[in-house]
Structure prediction request, 1752 residues.
Amino acid sequence: MIPRYSRPAMAAIWEPANKFRIWFLIEAHACDALADLGVIPKEAAAAVWEAGDKPYTAERIARIDAIEAEVKHDVIAFLTELADHVGEPARFVHQGMTSSDVLDTCLAVQLTQAADLLLEDLDAVLAALKRRALEHRMTVCMGRSHGIHAEPVTMGLKFASFHAEFERARDRLLAARADVATCAISGAVGTFANIDPAVEVHVAKQLGLTPEPVSTQIIPRDRHAQFFAVLGVIASSVERLATEVRHLQRTEVREAEEYFAPGQKGSSAMPHKRNPVLTENLTGLARIVRGYVVPAMENVALWHERDISHSSVERMIGPDATVTLDFALARLAGVVDKLVVHGETIRANLERMGGLVFSQRVLLALTQAGVSREDAYRLVQRNAMKVWDGEGDLLSLLKTDAEVTAALDDATLTGLFDLAHHTRHVDTIFKRVFGAAV
Amino acid sequence: MIPRYSRPAMAAIWEPANKFRIWFLIEAHACDALADLGVIPKEAAAAVWEAGDKPYTAERIARIDAIEAEVKHDVIAFLTELADHVGEPARFVHQGMTSSDVLDTCLAVQLTQAADLLLEDLDAVLAALKRRALEHRMTVCMGRSHGIHAEPVTMGLKFASFHAEFERARDRLLAARADVATCAISGAVGTFANIDPAVEVHVAKQLGLTPEPVSTQIIPRDRHAQFFAVLGVIASSVERLATEVRHLQRTEVREAEEYFAPGQKGSSAMPHKRNPVLTENLTGLARIVRGYVVPAMENVALWHERDISHSSVERMIGPDATVTLDFALARLAGVVDKLVVHGETIRANLERMGGLVFSQRVLLALTQAGVSREDAYRLVQRNAMKVWDGEGDLLSLLKTDAEVTAALDDATLTGLFDLAHHTRHVDTIFKRVFGAAV
Amino acid sequence: MIPRYSRPAMAAIWEPANKFRIWFLIEAHACDALADLGVIPKEAAAAVWEAGDKPYTAERIARIDAIEAEVKHDVIAFLTELADHVGEPARFVHQGMTSSDVLDTCLAVQLTQAADLLLEDLDAVLAALKRRALEHRMTVCMGRSHGIHAEPVTMGLKFASFHAEFERARDRLLAARADVATCAISGAVGTFANIDPAVEVHVAKQLGLTPEPVSTQIIPRDRHAQFFAVLGVIASSVERLATEVRHLQRTEVREAEEYFAPGQKGSSAMPHKRNPVLTENLTGLARIVRGYVVPAMENVALWHERDISHSSVERMIGPDATVTLDFALARLAGVVDKLVVHGETIRANLERMGGLVFSQRVLLALTQAGVSREDAYRLVQRNAMKVWDGEGDLLSLLKTDAEVTAALDDATLTGLFDLAHHTRHVDTIFKRVFGAAV
Amino acid sequence: MIPRYSRPAMAAIWEPANKFRIWFLIEAHACDALADLGVIPKEAAAAVWEAGDKPYTAERIARIDAIEAEVKHDVIAFLTELADHVGEPARFVHQGMTSSDVLDTCLAVQLTQAADLLLEDLDAVLAALKRRALEHRMTVCMGRSHGIHAEPVTMGLKFASFHAEFERARDRLLAARADVATCAISGAVGTFANIDPAVEVHVAKQLGLTPEPVSTQIIPRDRHAQFFAVLGVIASSVERLATEVRHLQRTEVREAEEYFAPGQKGSSAMPHKRNPVLTENLTGLARIVRGYVVPAMENVALWHERDISHSSVERMIGPDATVTLDFALARLAGVVDKLVVHGETIRANLERMGGLVFSQRVLLALTQAGVSREDAYRLVQRNAMKVWDGEGDLLSLLKTDAEVTAALDDATLTGLFDLAHHTRHVDTIFKRVFGAAV
Prediction:
């Protein structure tokens, strides 16, 4: 997480002010439940809310840090500072709880906050993709496999394909959000030895979480591993879209380009450059987010009821993964939204390969006309290879190949070289992706 | 995937006989749909089933391999061999389809077959965990955080914790199975240019898959990335359970042991050894399965409508990840099922630390009695540190500490040192995990 | 490691016949040293060599496997089978040694054997790169940054860049080979309690290894982690070269192509296709080899003097990583060797962008002529952007820009558009890479 | 890189003030070389040094940031700010260079600075390990394989083993430092088209780097991949040592403990706790550093002469990996230095298992006395298993086993149970690690 790749709302989730605020809410809600159970005085719970329900200012945070430097324990430092405000009833705070009750439940809240921002980001990406898909539904362009011209598709289909992928991303993130949205207020080893399970139920409800079925001082880390794994998968989808744009912007292809602002400089040395730097950047950010997946998985196998080795990992990848992916998704939405599509180059590229892209249709027509598949393949390939070698366009060559014309007459051959044939089912696919309405 | 860590049923999924059989089913079902559409003769479809609906023997596979060595294309080799059996109507097979329609749909079938075996494996792990959890529901043992004695738990709670974790594993795998269970019969770039979408719908239905909303010659690889990521998370849960057993079997702990068969040798050099080799092995296998996660994610960003770089990765990690995890889960179920629990050592370890594990309860009692939290902590800690240094047991020391006895009398202190206090909520937790019935 | 991506010599290193042969050599050399020390009879050592110095046939291997199935310990099984041949003196074999003395020293031998094959592979890649570099030393082609035309380079420089990179790969592999080439014959916890250090020194020397300074039953795994990390870096270099070829073969670029054999089929559906399938395959194989790096690193932190969790990892990644990289390097050498370079397309691409590639040189000439850098940038960029938009070639546009011509006259401008300017230092670079001789 | 896990000197390397200072030095040294070549006036080079050779204050950095926000190009922003100070001769700065000449050479300097700090850190770890190794050279303690008691070692041997490992770490880091210590001043695509190679040679020499043989606008990223891979291996060695301490501090083992400061609190809930939190923390930090390895490897395969996808990765992992490892190594040195070793517990643990640890020596003595290896194993194992089951100590049991006493008399048996036997070669090992002097 570096400022260059951070957006304020996501970064704020990981700042001390938010963290301590969540800690306070956990403790205060727990006090309410404890008071209801008669474990602590109702007045104590009320005093906690009254004195403590206020923001954590820079001054308060500095005070907590100072205490922590001395006692070397963050939750104790937090509680000590809170006691300054609450006074005598503070001794009822944190009754029967252990630090991890606060830390892990807080992390659950932070991750759900982060997930909510990421879901908004995905919605923005989806909205941009849908708009561009509908805009270019019938913009016929070359489809490529292996980087080699294959058969025509449409720009709209490209956008639709990514839309479907990011809808899956959304579904996965929603599931991952649910996976981490649990609350543990279960004490030192999760037995509720010194705290009633009702406290956990109350705090969970207040914070929009569900109670963790079995915690062991901590919430089990398979939940977090799954969460960060899903971020890694989403980042990989970001990379796929970024890679598509980078390819389309290559000088020789140039079917689309990232928006290039007036006054922007592409290169300090070469004034002619317009580089796809945003999508190259996204490619790198995807690598970073993926890099956090395995450490999160290594965090699962903690020792016995818990060890704390996961903590340093999460202090880093919690912010880093969510902030970086948030930035990447926001950038991606902008790239899609403002992508410049070059219709003329698209058409020029389509026509560039001398009709090679119709080779399969000729193959099929030959087999329908009674030629064996093997012979048909041979006939089409031998003419196609001549096109690659610059000896003419495919249709003309086929018309002069006696073995071909023995099976298909001129008019039939000409009829096969028809772009419209390839877009007949675009609406079917759009309905699958966007529903019947579009 | 090496024989040492393979089980036959899972390995068979990845063998040529199964692969070619699935290919045949895809082609034959597609012929039915094509015949219904009038694209090919009904007799042709019937001929395909009649001549081709039989196992792929070693002989047939060798023939396909021989053809592939020549044409350097696996699907063409497959179709050529099929044509030997089907004869003339074979030219109607694969009409309008592309190789990936077969390959990707086949992979979907193989991954769902693999997922089904893994789900069975998880069920076996869950059954063993449940049985052992109920058996040891009230076997009180030491809970440890940071490897240090904390407070008592029960062996049953340990098993219950893993049961809850492997239920999550099951849910995640079910979702991941659905993610990869799609069918694509959409042609060279996914436009259905030469094949009606109805064929895809028919084949999908026959094979228990859903049609891929947008394929681009291939099924998008974010689906597979998610699948392998989930296997990585499950492997990490395997590692957690394996690590727990390894710790419990340590010479100094020895609360549980892997079953050691009569006649087994633990070490070629040291005849006295009984090592937790199964769970050490599982720890290593978890690393291996995790190692496949990032390559699967790197497979997502293919170029344009597809490139084939994912293929070599999947040829290796498809079998390797599923076979290894299948072996690991089966081994794990056995370890849990046969785990030897040493009740006496468990009790001895509980009593070993001079009552230190009751420190929190004393702390809370002091605060309830009006001592400030900070003072209470100080009082308990100073006596606890003496216990660490071998100067006596905690209860005796507390009874001689005037500041403590000023707040709590002897009987009260004695009453705090009660194991039963720690197991009051075991049933609550068991109900969360296993439901009301247990 | 699957047959499709295996070559016989590397695969043989990991087969039982080679493994057991190395085990025998370790035991037999150890017997010699033990006999020299007077620990065992000289006749016993002689008997071991006489009866045991022969290949491990399939029959012998099956016998060992059968014993292992019973005793569940591979080294004991091996020793038992050896005893069948050696007879009574067999009881002197393995005196004071532990299984890991055999296993770890064997792995060291296998990894050095593998490294030697990989070094040969690298030499073949280097030879092909050097030949093509010299062949195309002055084949001027477009250099591209960000996928966008930048300034001219030569095809020879591309090859030279990879040559320098693979020379670094060779250096790293040599260092990594030395890192794993150690021998441990130090007993159950590495103290030489029951075996003299002189045995280790003797065996190490006979096998071309160095004695491990401190072993702890096992050779420390940081050595192996470093080895597999280096394989991952080399695989990444393979991917860079593969990616270059894939880009050059794109339909729109088509400056080079993988060799396409007569009779080869690019696509079952589209007879016109010639796809860069070898380099796409290499891209995937690189992902696989990288996937083994982190598991190898996770193997380092074993418990106390050793645990065996590394073993299952190494049984898989030992063969998989070396076999896959061996296959990849051999394939890569072939791709480079037979790469088809399309001179005409290269020249056409160079001329395609209307002289944009000379923009920096104009910029520098303007600053040399007294224009500020900022103004010069602005002047060149505004003309370059017109070229992008299809409004003419850069030289013509500059000649009509009054601000430009105020600083540079027509002849000077024309002189700047000179390809030879960009190749003046090619020889300097070639000398750095290939030495003075070329 | 978060403040919690950062040390100032390493963090400063990555701060703008250091980065811009290096950029200035590169540009100013390049001006000297350009002036020597007569490309720019000597006065211009002198003016650059005179006006620019001063620190980058917060004010200057803010000014650069403001310019960058406008022109969206960091090097141009830097040059523009520099021009403010240098005035008219500033137009001669950066002549013929491209941004990457500055950025990549700067990164090389930063990584060598970072490597130098890490080498110092390693020296501190090595010094602590050596001191403790010599201190505990003959502190006999239990050696454990698989977490199970094996045979005696000494605490000194443990430290010596880590010393040897961190010496390898040092060697690897030195080699990795050399790998990244190259300078590229070669222009837009590395052809020196607009700048003489002599400039690169001069700047390299001034900055302690070597010229990059072939750069392609950028320095090839296999160098950086190797560097970060080595950091990952070192982090794994940190984890091994951390894991050893965590195991030794387990309540049941308690042979050593992290230093626990007076006033420190181990747990907010359980006042008795003294947890190995530093080494648990190091375990987590190791995961983090390893997580950066694969992204660094993914950075290698850039497109053609370069793309910029590596940049965002390096902006994050450059600081994060070096700062985190620096912090970890410093913490590790402290842990080793202050580790509390509990001699009494060590001795108690040694005696705990009823002499089982001498089982191998009895086995060997039996074979020396003419018993077959298989019989000897059986005899020892059947007595050892009784010890595990609490039926007595090994020596007493052996003395009552007729088959044993038939081969070995009482005195011989007693003589085998001798700890000194296991430490005879400690000096040999120490000489291998620390040289003849110790």
In short: The longest helix of chain D spans residues 99-135.
